[in-house]
Amino acid sequence: MFFHIVLERNMQLHPRHFGRNLREHIISKLMKDVEGTCSGRHGFVVAITSVENIGKGLIRDGTGFVTFPVKYQCVVFRPFKGEILEAVVSMVNKMGFFAEAGPVQIFVSNHLIPDDMEFQSGDMPNYTTSDGSVKIQKDSEVRLKIIGTRVDATEIDKNISQSRPKWDPAGSHPSRFFCIGTIKDDFLGVINDPTTI
Amino acid sequence: MSLATDSPVNSSSSDDLAAFLDAELDSNSLGSSPEKEAEDKDEDEESIDEEAENEEARDDKDLERIKRRKTQIVETIQERPGPTSLGNLEEKTEVSLGTDNCPHPGSLGGMCYRCGKRLEEESGVTFSYICKGLRLGNDEIDRLRNTDMKHLLRHRKLYLILDLDHTLLNSTLLLHLTPEEDYLKSQADSLQDVSKGSLFMLAFMNMMTKLRPFVHTFLKEASEMFEMYIYTMGDRPYALEMAKLLDPSREYFNARVISRDDGTQRHQKGLDVVLGQESAVLILDDTENAWTKHRDNLILMERYHFFASSCRQFGYHCQSLSQLRSDESELEGALASVLKVLKRIHNIFFDELANDLAGRDVRQVLKMVRGEVLKGCKLVFSHVFPTKFPADTHYLWKMAEQLGATCSIELDPSVTHVVSTDARTEKSRWAAKEAKFLVDPRWIETANFLWQRQPEENFPVQQTKPEENFHAKQMKDQ
Prior knowledge:
- The structure holds two protein chains of two kinds.
- Chain A has two domains: 76 residues, 2-Layer Sandwich (Dna Ligase, domain 1); 113 residues, CATH 2.40.50.140.
- About 10% of the residues of chain A have low confidence.
- In chain A, a hairpin with a 3-residue loop joins strand 2 and strand 3.
- Helix content of chain A is 10%, strand content 48%.
- The radius of gyration of chain B is 31 Å and the shape is globular.
- The N and C termini of chain B lie far apart (76 Å).
């Protein structure tokens, strides 16, 4: 689900940026650092909508760097247990299928796929009802319910880790959300058949 | 949209939106006002009774948050350092969800994929080669084995597990190439179209790989009778690269590539990571020791030594195939003979066995086919075993018996063959006198590999005992 929340972050700035464009520098650095990252608590930061307040800068002892506490508003995306979402199927195998809703990956096991759908292997593995009316294959859109979520500290995206200074404590470790979903309830399942479009 | 629906799975969980945001209110790390605003905004959308949950939820959420923080720092989510009281509180919130009835057939990423509950103990077997992070419980594995078995039998297929090194191909590190083998570097086939080639240079892995002659035809024909797996003692990246060379269009193996990272035991291969019934699995491997628990399913293959490094690895001091600029025979080599055997076994299993499909066992068929190779032969050994060695425990004796021959210690008129390494022993001379076959022990071993009784005149006993080995024999047979 998407949220519009206020977050705070300490931005560290090199003295070369001090001058007329200080505020612009801070904001552009903030956007570069934060947009596209994910934290376990807030989820994925999709976009920064506005900067509320940039506090007074504090000079770090020993170096010339200055820390500015920045409060900003942003749109975040975080999956929750019990939430219903639409996702696009990315892979189908006999254990179930994987679907993606933006940056979140969801696995729906065959236990939670309605019993009348059977797995068909082949070139395009898919799950089909006995009369062939409904088919789940790669690139189908499905509506599913999330029944479990997990934050995974996964492989660090090299671009992000290099731009963020190591001491930055508010910077969360890059992570990924992984969820288990179901389509066995009412109103869940395929909403868009890729072959008919 | 309300998160707190009627279904018990979704009630007051630790991921519940409002309770979670509620905790943010009480957190002192980032200041309360921004969270309050956010919470107010969302409260308009949510209609959840937070008051009751507030008190106890607060503690839980703090703990949950601490847990999440630690989770992000630690690579896997399994460990939760902290006092055990934390663990108990966590369990309490989970238990109220009504997920107790779920048998937890398996988990992906630490969560049961049936009810979504986080699983603390790891039971069952890991199947990383199917999906990363997949674990299946034993009941689920049995259920899957049964359904898969029925499916395959309907399509008249059995399971075939193939080893890579020295069975289907031979790999060497580039730095192990001898100067005489340098000519190979210029002869390597293109990596763009691997379906026709057999010698590949994989510079990014510092390796060269030679596929065994006949392997493409073998895979094509075997895939019509078997569902095939690759099971190698190499690591995962190596296994996947080799699968790409053997099966570029992913039609033979697909995801069924098992490497040593997927096995449950360190130096052993096992059928526990294979989703197929043991009574329908055949294994092709050159190493018997890797399959100690499943010897009955194993078809032992003759090792393929193309590169000099491979010969040296096994202690042979002869010239390898690459140094001699030759190769194993395509139509009469090991793969071709094994294919004939596999076809025969497949035929017998599906067409000739009397009982119903579920009761048949491919191991019985294998035993039966093997027992026909040397049927009718009675063997006596001479100068083969060390003195005072219990003869019937020797591997040659056992091999001969598996091949259908009868073995005996004493000479008598029903003996048909004398197996000896020295033509001057008493028993050897008796054989010559009585016009019985006098053969070298390699006659038995070759029959084992080629699944056929070999002409005895090809295995004369030497007068003196030279340093012979399989490789030279391979050359002779061509």
